[in-house]
Amino acid sequence: MKLYSGPLSLFTAKVRIALHEKGLPYEKISVPWSLEHRYEPHHPDVVALNPKAQVPVLVDGDVVVYDSTQIFEYLEEQYPDPPLYPHSVVERVRCRRLEAAADEILFPPIWSLIDAGFYPARAGIRDHERIGAAHAALAKEYALLEKELTGRVWLCERFSVADVATLVMVRAASGLGGAPRSEYSALHEWLERSLARPAIRREMDEMNAFLATLRAAPAGREIPA
Length: 225
Ligand SMILES: N[C@@H](CCC(=O)N[C@@H](CS)C(=O)NCC(=O)O)C(=O)O
Prior knowledge:
The chain contains eight helices and four strands, in the order E-H-E-H-E-E-H-H-H-H-H-H. The chain is of the alpha+beta class.
């Protein structure tokens, strides 16, 4: 199995964690990425395999899957043990909803922090309004997540792709100065439980090690361990 992977790509991080959780060996093919040029030039294989020219792309024999959510679904069907989706239909629906929320509601403000705050400022000018709006959006989402997690060990009836996706986004936001407030105890306890999982610990360590190699990265940009 091969995974086309971006070193700091949050969507690829979701897949790397799922592969480790499932104990699946794979060849990691890192695509070009830099602070200055982002994903340009795109890896030619990724351009050929994915019309969106984005990572992650998983190649398993003759099967090519792109988009992290579709890769999760493929892995679950092809390699069901250990499961990363809940058993009951109702909890599976909840899991898909929360995983989609991580990608589609939590990620956009994080992208604003990355685009406007992490990458070099365009023409030397930071868009502080965009960064402020992103922090406000994150605060709203954290309040909702606290409710979703209250009284639960994981977001769904067992550890699932909803936890993977949400954890990746919350940790990235935290590394960009957008951590959840300390009074969100259910959210913080879930974060601690998640970070104790070897697959997640390993992914956070690898991303932090990569961040440490970025000579241009100013202090405070690391995803905290
Ligand atoms: N919905 C896609 C999003 C993938 C995505 O945005 N990938 C980014 C890296 S995190 C990428 O490859 N960007 C390069 C580009 O768009 O040129 C997924 O869940 O996999």
